[in-house]
Amino acid sequence: MYINAPADNIAVHPQWPRPAQDLVRDLAAYPAALIGDVRNRMDMMSADIRCLTPGIRLGGAIFPVQVWEGDNLAIHRGLDEAQPGDVLVISGNGVTNRSVFGGILAEICLSKGIRGVIIDGAVRDVEEMNDMGIAVFARAVVPAGPSKNGPGTVGKPVACGNVVCNPGDVVVGDNDGIVVVAQSEIAETLHKLPAQEEIERNIRDRVKAAAL
After folding, report:
1. 63 near 146, Cβ under 8 Å?
2. What is the separation, in whole angstroms, between the first and last Cα of the chain?
């Protein structure tokens, strides 16, 4: 870890298969709203989890972390296991009176190739993270910092923004919000997206033609 703290009470689950990077890239090329439409408008996180770095899109494999409320020891421990292309999806149980993520952790994420972070909780150092270019989604912003005592889990499914997030699933986020796609459903979702995109394009074309 990057901090000198015991982490004996952080349970680290075995590693899991990640989706192919080209599939993640292809999926992340579509808007979160369009992906949600072809998935029957399910598996989209609560609007309370909002984009704090406008204009920075997010797409990657879920790396789930459960923290104790207002504590970020599990995040530090999790970064030892995270791989390039991962997105940290952190359940802080919706508690917003203490930030569990900020500029220093963002620097570590960038150095490891982490694509972004989604937190059902609070963050700080938002301007700094905007300048870094890392995608950050969270429930709130607060200056108060965290404790580093644990307990927590790394690699175990978590609930974030009212959606169950399994390790290796994919998240796509933009200014509209976040959608979760199960790893087993990536190919099916990708197959449906061009047709839905064409339907919307045709509607827009008809609207424009009628206005002429």
Report:
1. no
2. 62
Q: How many domains does the chain have?
A: 1
Supply 156's token pair: 């175990």
Over 80: is that where the pLDDT of 96 sits?
A: yes
Element (H, E) at 90: strand 86-91
Structure tokens at 98: 């203490």
- Evaluate if residue 140 carries a pLDDT over 80: yes
CATH of residue 158's domain is 3.50.30.40
**Residue 125 resides in a domain:** yes
Answer yes or no: is 5 within a domain: no
Asked if the structure places residue 136 within a domain, the reply is yes
Residue 81, exposed/middle/buried by CB under 10 A (0-12, 13-18, 19+)? middle
pTM (two decimals): 0.95
Six token digits for residue 32: 């979160």
Structural domain harbouring 81: 10-211
Distance (Å, whole) CA 177 – CA 197 = 18
